Amino acid sequence: MDDTGFRNSKVPGTQDKPRLYSPATQPLLQSLLSTLADIDFEYEQAKENISKNSPDLNLRIRVLEKLKSQHHERRMPYIRELAVLQERMISHR
After folding, report:
1. Per-residue b/e over 17-49, b at no fewer than 16 CB within 10 Å?
2. Contact 32, 82 (CB under 8 A)
3. Average pLDDT for runs of 10 along the chain of length 93
4. How much is the pLDDT for 33?
5. Domain coordinates in residue numbering, the chain
6. Quick one: which of 44, 70, 76, 81 has the most CB atoms within 10 Å?
7. How many CB atoms neighbour CB 61 within 10 A?
8. 63: nearest Cα among 73, 49, 75, 77
9. Cα 42 to Cα 54, 76, 78, distances in angstroms
10. Would you call 36 helix, strand, or coil by DSSP?
11. Contact, 81 vs 34, CB < 8 A?
């Protein structure tokens, strides 16, 4: 049973809002967001591992800076694709 009380509830006198994206767009959007989440999760794990296992502060700082740069580079193609998808969704409203 749904304990939120929100499922299938509709305020009387309101109209259903149109979808912000087509059903064909949803799988791509979900895939991009899932990939970004995976990249971020791996980054956080690597940061934690480096912080725990590197006793040399200067080395740790350099490695973390490099890791941050690599993380940014890995994310950028997906961020760009999300921006293209967003533009497509806006232009088809």
Report:
1. eeeebeeeeeeeeeebeeebeeeeeebeeeeee
2. yes
3. 42 54 83 97 97 94 98 98 90 75
4. 96
5. 25-91
6. 81
7. 12
8. 49
9. 18, 15, 15
10. helix
11. no
